[in-house]
Amino acid sequence: MARSIWWASVLPIALLFCPAVVLSQVPTNNAHPKPEIVTEIIAEAKAADSPEGNYKYARHLTDWFVTKQSGDAYLDAFSERLTKADLMARHRELEWISESTVVQAYNYLLKQIGGHPNNPPQANVNTVHQLRITLSEVSPAFSTVNSNNSECLPTEAVQLMIQLLEHNGSIEGLCPPTPGANGTLVQQNPCIVKDDALSLMSKYSRSRSSSEQQKSFDHIAKLFGI
C-alpha cells in the first residue's frame, strides 16, 4: 500500500523514505491534515514562541498523535500540558528531550499497541536524528536540530512520534528491497505489510478502553516532561 507522510503535500520528507512509490493520503491514527492547512501549520510552528501560537500548534499535534478514543477532555488536557511544557522548554525552564528519549517513547508505544520485536522495527537514535534533519529542511520551524544536535522541544518530540508511526520506525520505508534469486536487491511490488505501526495503532484504539489508552499516553508525556 502506498504511503505518505502525515502532511501529504510535504513531498521532500515523503520522498526521502519512499522515492519509488506513488504517494497518497493515508490518515494516521486520527485525522490526516488536509493539504490546504499545511501553510497554517507552518505559521503556527513559527509562532510557537507565543502562548497563542504554541497552543494552536500543540493542539494540531495532539489531535494527530493521541487517539480520539482517549476522550475530548483528555485531548484538551494533553494539548494544554504540551503547550505549557514546550513554552517552558523554549525559555530554558524545563529540560529538553534527548533523541534517545524519543526512541524510548516510540518503542514503549510500539510494545503497548502489540508490536513484536523488529515487526514493525523498533526505532533508533539515527532514525530520529535523520527525521529531525529532514523536518528542518522542510522548515526550520519544525526542528531545532541545527541549534540542538541531540535534544529537542516537547512539540518536536510529539511530531517525531507521529513521523515514526507513519514510517514504521524506520528511515528505509515500509518495504525495503530484499535479496532476489540472483543476489540482487528486489523491491516488493505491491508493498504488502502485515503489521505496520499505523495498523496496530488503529487496532489498539478500537480494542482498548479510554483509560488504558490514556495511561499509555501519560507515560509518554512523562518521558517528554509534559
Task: Give a count of the beta strands, DSSP E runs of length 2 or more.
Answer: 4
N-to-C CA distance:
34 Å
Number of domains: 1
Count of DSSP-assigned helices: 9
The arrangement of helices and strands along the chain is: HHHHEHHEHEEHH
- Rounded to an integer in angstroms, the radius of gyration calculated over CA atoms is 17 Å
Unreliable stretches (pLDDT < 50, length at least 5) are 1-36
Overall form: globular
Structure class: mainly alpha
Question: In words, what does this structure look like?
Answer:
The structure is a single chain. The chain has helices at 11-17, 38-46, 51-65, 72-90, 99-112, 125-138, 154-166, 197-207, 210-223, and strands at residues 97-98, 151-152, 178-179, 185-186. Helix 3 packs parallel to helix 7. A hairpin with a 5-residue loop joins strand 3 (178-179) and strand 4. The chain is mainly alpha-helical and 226 residues long. It has one domain. The chain has a two-stranded antiparallel sheet with strand order 1-2. The chain has a two-stranded antiparallel ribbon with strand order 3-4. The termini are far apart.
